[in-house]
Design brief:
The protein is built from 19 helices and 17 strands. The protein has 430 residues and is an alpha+beta fold. Strands 1, 2, 3, 4, 5, 6, 7, 14 and 15 form a 9-stranded antiparallel sheet that branches.
Length: 430
């Protein structure tokens, strides 16, 4: 298969994700730090995470094993996976309504929280680890993470290991109708990159110390791996296509692949060469998954900028993203407003926002004012949107609440910013 044929096959995979408007759904996943209630130190896979997952198998979840270790779970409406430093990731099946997503979230978390409470653990909802330093946290027994850790040590940026071990996020997936719709949504999503990093900033502690700047998650990704993170340089091209994205994937170093049932290290070998031997759907999916740009494409578009944030701001984020990309009037408005955005302007705004956060200015308007303007156009899901609107009207982000609580009592701050607190306060269980 020659190079152009590989491009076409990758592009067709992305094209196969097209959906009719009436089939559009929203999906999301949230990563959590699992920490001791008192010490706030990270718990390990061996100490607690594996036993929690085995207990979930006993509750009816299907376990996914690797070399005898439980590494994932699937259940009705949800799947669970473990990130490199035992971050507990819960991915919820997509739905057409935020209300349905919330009902499923509430149901699943009500089941899960007692497993953590019984062990004196919190499912913390902050963007960076509240206490442990990354050198103190072991990598889970998963070969691919060993390979990624090695690769980033050899070729990655200065904060690649902070990404693997120290960060957690909220990620939202949206659908596209055709290539034109894809182009518009991909453009707007990247144009809003710094806005979403800023509004959902929730990182106050970095490596055990107060982080003095803003948008730590953004800074980590900017200093992770220029081959596969941040905003891709072509994101604002007017002729952006499925093939544009596919070409980038072919150029990207593969790090590792799965061959004959085992993960093997491939380092800097680009996918263009990997596909000479294997261009199965499984390998294409791996190629699309082992890149980590602000906006990632599979058979849907992933919005990856927000830190992990607690309720009600997590669902405000989901509702905000859903309405931006599924309300044609709002999407068209933003496409026109940001028509002159380009890679250099986006990078300049990112740099400004590390110092000024939501007060950084783009085209004579502050970031928080832009987002309030967008919220004012949203007609649906107001009960989810309004808590974030009220926060931004105070010129605050979740990080500001976290900081205030942390200065009073770190344990209280992390408890308040946990799923445990959400379930207890709203449903009387923990």
């Amino acid at each position: 298969m020659d190079y152009e044929e590989k491009i076409k096959k990758l592009a067709e995979y992305i094209r196969s994700g097209e959906k009719n408007k009436d089939e559009f759904k929203v999906g999301f996943e949230i990563e959590h730090f699992v920490v001791d209630k008192e010490s706030l130190e990270s718990t390990s896979y061996d100490a607690n995470i594996s036993s929690i997952m085995e207990e979930m198998v006993g509750m009816g979840y299907e376990g996914i094993y690797e070399n005898g270790h439980i590494m994932g779970l699937s259940g009705d409406g949800v799947s669970v996976s473990i990130e490199p430093a035992s971050q507990f990731e819960v991915a919820f099946d997509s739905s057409r309504s935020v209300d349905e997503l919330y009902d499923n979230y509430k149901k699943i978390m009500t089941e899960l929280v007692p497993l953590f409470e019984n062990r004196g653990l919190l499912m913390a909802e902050v963007g960076y680890h509240p206490k442990s330093k990354i050198d103190e946290i072991p990598i889970i027994p998963k070969k691919r993470y060993d390979y990624m850790y090695k690769y980033f040590a050899d070729y990655g940026g200065s904060m690649a290991h902070n990404m693997m071990k120290g960060s957690t996020s909220l990620q939202v997936a949206i659908d596209y109708e055709d290539e034109a719709d894809f182009r518009m949504k991909y453009f707007v999503a990247n144009a809003l990159s710094v806005f979403l990093y800023s509004v959902f900033d929730n990182s106050y502690i970095f490596e055990g110390e107060v982080y003095q700047k803003r948008n730590l998650r953004q800074t980590i990704w900017e200093n992770c791996d220029k081959d596969r993170t941040g905003i891709y340089s072509f994101s604002f091209d007017k002729d952006l296509s499925y093939e544009t994205y596919a070409r980038k994937i072919l150029e990207t170093p593969s790090i590792f692949i799965n061959k004959d049932g085992a993960d093997i290290y491939t380092g800097k070998t680009p996918f263009a060469e990997i596909f000479d031997d294997d261009m199965s759907e499984e390998m294409i999916y791996h190629a699309l998954s082992i890149v980590f740009p602000d906006v990632r494409v599979k058979k849907y578009i992933e919005i990856r900028m927000p830190d992990n944030i607690p309720y009600p701001y997590n669902f405000a984020g989901i509702a905000l993203i859903k309405n931006i990309f599924y309300d044609k009037d709002i999407l068209t408005y933003l496409y026109k407003e940001f028509a002159d955005m380009d890679y250099d302007k986006a990078q300049s705004l990112k740099e400004m926002a590390t110092k000024e956060g939501i007060n950084a200015i783009y085209k004579d308007k502050k970031i928080y004012e832009w987002v309030l303007d967008i919220m004012g156009k949203i007609k649906n899901d107001r009960k989810f949107i309004d808590p974030l609107k009220e926060l931004l009207e105070k010129q605050m982000t979740p990080r500001d609440i976290y900081e205030s609580l942390y200065k009073e009592d770190p344990q209280k701050a992390i408890y308040e910013f946990s799923v445990n607190s959400f379930i207890k306060d709203n449903y009387g269980k923990n």
